[in-house]
Each structure stands twice: as structure tokens, then as C-alpha cells.
Amino acid sequence: MTKLKDMFVPWLATAREYNYSILDHAWGHPENARLMLNENPLPPSEKVVQAVADAVRKGNRYPDSYLRLRTKIAAKYDMGPENIELCNGSSEIIDSMMRLFLKPGDEIIMSNPTFGLYPPRAELCGAKVVQVPVMKDTMQYDVEKMLASVNEKTKLILIISPNNPTGVFIDDADLERFCELGIPLCVDEAYLDYCPDYKTKAYLIKKYPHVFLASTFSKAFGFAGIRFGFMLGTEEMAQAFKAMLLPWNVGLMAAAAAEAILDNPEEVQAKVAHNNKWMKIFTKELKELGLHPYPANGNYMLVDAAITGKTTAQILTAALEKNIYLKRIGEIHGNNCYFRVTPGLDEENERFIEFIHEYFGK
Ligand SMILES: Cc1ncc(COP(=O)(O)O)c(C=O)c1O
């Protein structure tokens, strides 16, 4: 009889895995500082908790399409409810966009490094992931090489801005060059809420109907475990995503939480202020020790520790001995000396600073 593994689609065996087993470790060890996953360290406010508690009482009913909530979010982008689809965290948009645009043999272009969920979700559609290394010194997108990688098989392009894990924004003029290709383009703005001075790229949707945005409440809004996100696009694009997403993908509790935090912008402002304060402190402390934190715009920074002679693996092991999780970053341009860190609670951040002084200090 045919073996079960031979019954699966062939790309199941070859697709990369998005490994999040660290979370099993982290939930089992609450004493460890979770500085590795770009989470928000601050828990939801009482207003959010109350909204969720009220919603759960209606949990026997199927949700509707959340017209009021969609209208509220879309209005922030000068768009209407027909331009937005809600999702159970923007990972759902990542998955849907692959199924929407990629057939086996098609190609998607993205940077290397990138957010680790993107390659596997494309590969699980049988598509080929073309990853173009970022520029060596600036960690900026290598726009020329990415454009040169476009061919007739390219059916989707991904730009995360600010990028993860590099923390840099793409220049507007460069982004427009991708738009001009006329190929479906996802602009992922997961971390934009940390940067009140930067404008969303939603305006591109009106000019380029093949452009869409992915966004999430997992970061500045602190909803990683509540799960809530959305996509923005033309009405036609939103309808296509609606077809790909499951009905009732967003539960009543997540939607109620989203509406409560939208009605209480001070909560997000306080979370952003906490993060941005510690991002500055981390940058200063790391620089003083001779390390190289790249200029970063989200809730994480990429750090080059080459000067210390330590490898990524050594640094992560030493940090864990001090009850700190850091993010493993694979080789970039053959160098194995990077890690990524996200500010946590005050005490955890102080622990991180103590660790880097002890470990990297002379
Ligand atoms: C760039 C980027 N996009 C999307 C996500 C997914 O977030 P979520 O599914 O929690 O909304 C992440 C998570 O880290 C990310 O870094």
C-alpha cells in the first residue's frame, strides 16, 4: 500500500518549517525574559479585558462581518469597509496571499533575512522562494538585485517596512519601482505603529490596484495572543482575500478587544513610549560596549556582535543562562555573529543590560 508520506502533496516534504518550539519552552519558564519574539511585554488594559469578558457572554453566536470595526480601522487609512478584511493575526494574510497568487512553479521575491513565516507558507503552495540578501553595510533591501530577479514566473513580491529583522524602512522611491512592475505586491506594515512619524503606504493602493497592505495588532497594540490583524486593498483585492479566508475567522473576543483598544488610543501610545524609550537605551548601551546595533524602527533591533568574536549560538546560550531569550539570526553574508533583541518589562531590560555588560564588557 502507498505510504502515507507519499500521499501528501510533494511540497509538504520540502517546505521549510517555521519553528516556534521556543514558545513551549518560554511558557514553561515564565522566569525567563522573552526578548526574542517581537512581542509587546505590556499586557492588555482593563478596558480590553472587560470588552473580551462582555463578548464571551455572547460566544454562542456566530459573528457577523464586523462592519463597524472594519469601518473604524479603514477610516484611519482614509478608506472604507469594502477595502479591508479582518484576520486572526496577519499570519492569516500571509497564508492567504500565497494561496491567492501562487501556483506550483511560480516565484515570490523577498529579502534575506525576512520574517521566517513567509518562506514556508509560499513553499507549501509549491512555489519557489527567491530571497535576495540585504545590503551588507546598511541591511537595506538590495532593490537592484530584487528587481533583476523578476521574471515571467514572479507572481508576488514582499516588502516588509520596517523590515524584520533588520529594522529599516524602504525608501518611497524604491517602493514605487516595485509598484510599477504591475506584479502583486504585499507591503507588510506590522511594526509601523511604533513610528508615529512615518506614514502608511496605503495611498499606493489607489494608484496601484495590485498593491495590498498587511497589518497586525500583535505588536504595538500587544495582541499577539489575542490574534487580530487585517489586510487593506482595493475592493476587488479585499473580496479575493475574503474568499480565501474562512468565514468567522475572527472570533467575537478578538474583535471586541480590537474595538476596545481602538477606542482607547492612550493605551497604544503608552506601549509605544515604553518600547521606544528602551530601544534608545539598548542602542546606547550596546554601542558603548562596541557592538553594532543597526538603526531600528520597530520593537526589535538587529545586533552585529562580530567585534566581540562571539557567535550567535554562544551569545544565545550565555543569555539563557541569565534567564534571557534572544532571537537567533542565521548567517548574513556568511557572518554568524548576529542576534535580535526586543525590549521587555523594565526589570527584564535591566537584566539584559546587566548581561551584556558582564558578557561583552572588557
Ligand atoms: C513582519 C511580520 N509580519 C507579520 C507578522 C505576524 O504577526 P501576527 O500573525 O501575529 O499578526 C510578524 C510577526 O512577528 C512579522 O514580524
Folded structure, characterized:
- There is one protein chain.
- The protein is α/β, with parallel strands linked by helices and 362 residues long.
- It has two domains: 4-43 and 266-360, Aspartate Aminotransferase, domain 1 (Alpha-Beta Complex); 46-264, Aspartate Aminotransferase, domain 2, CATH 3.40.640.
- Helices cover 39% and strands 15% of the residues.
- The strands form three sheets. A seven-stranded mixed β-sheet has the order 2-8-7-6-5-3-4, sandwiched between helices. A four-stranded antiparallel β-sheet has the order 9-10-13-12. The protein has a two-stranded parallel sheet with strand order 1-11.
- Helix 13 packs parallel to helix 15 (346-360).
- The protein starts with a helix and ends with a helix.
- The mean pLDDT is 97.
- Pyridoxal-5'-phosphate is lined by residues 38, 89-91, 115, 160, 164, 188, 190, 216, 218, 224, 229.
- Pyridoxal-5'-phosphate (PLP) binds at residues 38, 89-91, 115, 160, 164, 188, 190, 216, 218, 224, 229.
| Count, helices | 15
Global mean pLDDT: 97
Number of separate structural domains: 2
Share of helix among residues?
Answer: 25-40%
Under CATH, the topology of the largest domain is which? Aspartate Aminotransferase, domain 2
